[in-house]
Amino acid sequence: MPPIKGPNRSYKKGEPFRDARKFIIICEGERESEYFSYFDKQSQKLIIETIAPVGENQGESAPNHLKDRASEYIDENGWDEKYEDQLWFVLDVDRWDRTSIDSLFQLTQQTSNWYIAISNQCFEVWLFYHKSDIKVNPNSSAQMKQLLNTQVKGGYKLEDYAPNIGTATVNAKNIDQNEAGYFPDIGVTKVYKLGEEIVGLLKVDNGIIKLV
């Protein structure tokens, strides 16, 4: 059962204190999961858990499966609002119909501390802005992957991109001409909103995080 929006529950005497904010990130693919896991415990204030389809579940990346995965997490782990933890759905638009994406967005509007971060057309749009502040207009996910190959010799590598999350957050936000909207235009990604939350808990110098 997801935590429906409402007043925060009161502190329960005797429960352990946790001085870190946890982000549960429900990802569409393994690349996204690997990317966000990179930041786990890079600060004492930050815990990241990623959940992505793996093994026999690799084909289950549609929005309805992401919702099921989130509900399963809450059923297994519970949810306590006093820690101000956040749950994020990270997905693309290149394979899913708008109705199923809108349904997932509506769930985040009804549920406390649940959010959605969409890239149009794919997660590689977000990665692109780690190295560029110029808006891209991809016609396919395959083209985006080719563009990453022009940024770094040999193509995307986690260690070449993830530390620049501060730069990507600024670049992607500057390019978004409809910050209030949840559904991005083509070549735009809303992942910077999650990026802002993560960067706010890390030490960042000139757009690059300081690793611990």
Can you offer a commentary on this structure?
The protein has 212 residues and is an alpha/beta fold. It is built from eight helices and seven strands. It has a five-stranded mixed sheet, with helices on both faces. Strands 6-7 form a two-stranded antiparallel ribbon. Helix 7 crosses helix 8. The chain is globular, with a radius of gyration of 17 Å. Mean pLDDT is 88; it is low at 7-14.
Provide a compact summary of the structure.
The chain is of the alpha/beta class. The protein has eight helices and seven strands. The longest helix has 15 residues.
Tags for this model:
212 residues, alpha/beta, two-stranded antiparallel ribbon, 8 helices
Low-pLDDT sequence parts: 7-14
Task: Name the strands of the widest sheet in spatial order.
Answer: 2-1-3-4-5
Q: How helical, in percent, are the residues? A: 25-40%
In terms of quaternary structure, what is this?
Answer: single chain
Mean pLDDT: 88
Please compute the radius of gyration using only Cα atoms. 17 Å
The CA-CA distance between the termini, in Å, is 36 Å
